[in-house]
Write a structure and sequence with these properties.
This protein has about 50 residues and is mostly helical. The protein has a domain of about 35 residues. The protein has one helix and no strands. The relative contact order is 0.07.
Length: about 50
Amino acid sequence: MTDLFEPEGPDETGRGAGPVWRRLAWFAGLALMSLAVVAVFAYALRALLFVG
C-alpha cells in the first residue's frame, strides 16, 4: 500500500522561507478569512432559527 503523505526533507538550495512580513501577512489573511467564514455560517444558522 502506498502512503498518502510522503515526508519531504529540508530545502537544500540555500534559500530561506521568505520574508517574515509575507509569512505574517499570509497568517493574518488566513485568520481573517476563517473568522469571516465562521461568522457567515453562525449568522446563517441563527437565521434558520427564525425562519420557521
